[in-house]
Amino acid sequence: MNAMTKSAADLRRAARDHIRVPRLETPFHDRLMAISEVNDWYNWAGYKAPHSLTDGELEYFAIRSTAALFDISPMVKYRITGPDAERYLNRLTLRDVRKLGVNRVHYTAWCDDHGHVLDDGTLFRLGVEEFRLCCQERHLPWLLDSAFGFIVDIREETEEIAGLALQGPTSYAVLRDAGFAGMERLKPFDIATFPHEGGEVTISRTGFTGDLGYELFVPRARALSLWDRLWTAGALHAIRAIGYGALNQTRIEAGFIVANADFMTAEAALRADRVRMPDEIGLDWLVDPDKPNFNGRRAILDARRNQTLKHILVGLEIEGNISAEHAIVYHRQKHEAGLVTAAIWSPTAKRNIAIASLERPYGSKFTNDLWVEIYAMRELKYQKMMKRAKIVPRPFVKLARRTATPPGLK
């Protein structure tokens, strides 16, 4: 009896301790805390991350008008090395890794054997046999299981490597004035390394905003000195630190998707009908059917051939200016067609835009007479509104400076 009582007490204590465990702090947390005015934090992969730091609108316009600094350290990062690293990643992911040159990045995704997307992310080729895979969710058991038969080393380096996204039209000028000479030669998806504090910082011309931008990776010990270097150089270029709220607005404008927001990953989905194939979330262009076999290849190609795809992800333009986030989409105002997964009033496009997951044939065969059901709070009462929606191409906002090489010298 005493043993049973002690066991129950231990369980209760463990439950309390679990609640008390604080979120992990990123290497840049001290700098973020020093400038935070609103104490608006959220959980990103177990880390304490800012949803906003000052004013959400000012943070959004920093991305689109000047330069914005965003802490991407919580992004899950895997270092994959060894003589079979290329062959292993080619087996794992949808795109042909043999076409990815050294010091280049590409966007990719990977699936289970049924062709359902496990996650999407960016693959950095740092050397002939050296890669970094960045993604939203943790997949180490899956990656290790998939490595059977390959001579490859896989380890997570999320805590070891700090990351910053520097985005916006003056982002190049900030890097130039910070002393990173030669940045003007970087084309989109290029990688370069630069000396920093007796070590190196890796900079790629990548980002999640659809704007001119860069991502910087540095060992944790040199994180704060990198922040200070950028912050000092950015003072004359109106640099501003931002949270996820502003970044999310710009990624919607760019038409980018987020795992477990715009689609459920195969490992996170609890219901069989919630999983998605690449073609069902707009990632059909990633699939290279001509490369050697990869996870899910047969299922993906069979679904295309047999026309058994059940969903489609579309961009919507909606009348009015009230965001339709999580609104239900209807055909002819009566047949439920799908759900809006992300939506904003776009300050740059001056349009009410959304990303929606629709059940075929809606969005493929039936593309007209679509409506969204929006509930807006009006003086302590919800008002139901049916607003017209039309399917439009993504991205909603396309900026020439994103791909201009050399970038604008502002």
Give a verbal description of the structure.
This protein is α+β, with helices and mostly antiparallel strands. It has three domains: 19-75 and 160-253, Gyrase A, domain 2, CATH 3.30.1360; 76-156, Aminomethyltransferase beta-barrel domains (Alpha-Beta Plaits); 272-392, Aminomethyltransferase beta-barrel domains (Elongation Factor Tu (Ef-tu), domain 3, Beta Barrel). Helices cover 22% and strands 32% of the residues. The chain contains nine helices and 19 strands. The chain has helices at 2-20, 29-35, 56-65, 85-92, 140-146, 171-177, 223-234, 244-253, 297-306, and strands at 40-44, 47-52, 67-71, 76-81, 104-111, 117-127, 130-135, 153-156, 161-167, 191-196, 199-204, 213-219, 239-241, 311-318, 328-331, 335-346, 351-359, 370-377, 382-392. The strands form four sheets. It has a six-stranded mixed sheet with strand order 10-11-12-9-3-13, with helices on both faces. A six-stranded antiparallel β-barrel has the order 14-17-16-15-18-19. A hairpin with a 4-residue loop joins strand 16 (335-346) and strand 17 (351-359). Mean pLDDT is 94; it is low at 1-6.
